[in-house]
Amino acid sequence: MRKLTVLFAAVAALAAIPYEGDACTGIALTAKDGSRVVARTTEWGGSVLNSSYVVVPRGHRHVSFTPDGADGLTFTARYGYVGICTDQPQFVVEGMNETGLSAGLFFFPNYGGYVDYNPDNRENTLADMQFVSWVLASFSGIDEMKEAFSKIDIVSLDSRIGTVHWRISEPGGRMVVLECIDGRPVFYENSLGVLTNSPDFDWQMKNLNNYVNLYTGNVQPQELNGGVTLSQFGAGAGFLGIPGDATPPSRFVRAALYQNATPQAQTGEETVMQCFQILESFNIPIGLEHKKTDIPEGLPSATQWTVASDQSALRFYYRTAWNTTVRCIDLKSIDFGRVKFQTMPLDKVKEQPVEMIRVK
């Protein structure tokens, strides 16, 4: 009972924060050797998310929360998985299971809508913050997940938090986006591999057409009347006009074009590092989304952590706002039949290591 009280207190505290800076950005790249890597940032500029990594064994019993308590959908993990949770170990935001299936939650404020909670159907009710755990624990493919999804109700534990949407990615490259619109699930095939936040995914894809004039490389000088020549100020002027603000539509466009422009790396490990390099461009400095009088303390960046999942090598990489050193969990080294359920803070110490260079 105490754990349940603590959990709902955490949900209520999160919902009470007058902040709407939900700015997650997701990309996907494929290496020349066929390795598939999905990566994303997670932003929350209102407070420290208290994020941890979680290791979940096969056979672990999950129980979904409902607005009434801990009495929703019960499911047992068929597959072990690793992920990152926020505030509570049940709230996995991003992760990958031992088959290479990846799933992630992205905030979707002011759009979408779940079904109304029906207490009579609580045994088939799944909290939106526990959807990622359900996917990773239960499935190895998208079609299997879609069939099972038709039998459950997705609900929010607190309507003040708003809605979310999700991406689910197979190691072979197929990715779908799931959005709940007026209680109805809508699945989009996402061959582009990019996802941000609101508006809906279909709108974001249409909006890309507004930037059909952008291209990689330089532009040719243009001659005007009177012998005036216009020429670019610097390299890369083909991208002149790309939106640079932090809104979800602008980040979606930048992510799509940056991802398309990057050269294809040879290996999955090289591709992981490419993803981290690309996503550096989406790091939101603390204060950008606030009035100067409302800037929270203790956050070096609104981008609290960044993840890259090599779905072929089964390696889960992350770095944080406090320590940009890239860390890796190798799922192949974990015996998910014997390992114990465990969580650990992403940073043992919230401090950026600095290597001193000795000059002789």
Would you give an account of this structure?
The protein has 360 residues and is α+β, with helices and mostly antiparallel strands. The chain has a single domain (2-345), classed as Penicillin V Acylase, Chain A (4-Layer Sandwich), CATH 3.60.60.10. Helices cover 18% and strands 27% of the residues. The protein contains 6 helices and 19 strands. It has an 8-stranded antiparallel beta sheet with strand order 13-12-11-8-7-6-3-19, covered by helices on one side. It is globular, with a radius of gyration of 21 Å. Residues 1-6 and 12-20 have low confidence and may be disordered.
Write the layout of secondary structure elements.
Elements: H1 2-16, E1 26-30, E2 36-43, E3 51-56, E4 61-63, E5 74-76, E6 81-86, E7 92-97, E8 102-107, E9 125-127, H2 131-138, H3 142-149, E10 153-155, E11 164-169, E12 175-181, E13 184-189, H4 201-207, E14 222-224, E15 228-230, H5 248-261, H6 268-280, E16 303-310, E17 315-320, E18 327-330, E19 342-345
Parallel strand pairs: 9-10
Antiparallel strand pairs: 1-2, 2-16, 3-6, 3-19, 4-5, 6-7, 7-8, 8-11, 11-12, 12-13, 14-15, 16-17, 17-18
Q: Tell me the radius of gyration.
A: 21 Å
| Total domain count | 1
Secondary-structure-derived class = alpha+beta
Strand content: 25-35%
What is the typical, i.e. mean, pLDDT?
92
Strand order of the largest sheet: 13-12-11-8-7-6-3-19
SSE series: HEEEEEEEEEHHEEEEHEEHHEEEE
- Summarize the amount of helix as a percent range: 10-25%
Helical run tally: 6
- The CATH topology is given as Penicillin V Acylase, Chain A
Question: Would you identify the CATH architecture?
Answer: 4-Layer Sandwich
- CATH C-level class: Alpha Beta
What's the CATH H-level superfamily name? Penicillin V Acylase, Chain A
Uncertain ranges: 1-6, 12-20
**Count of DSSP strands:** 19
**Spatial shape:** globular
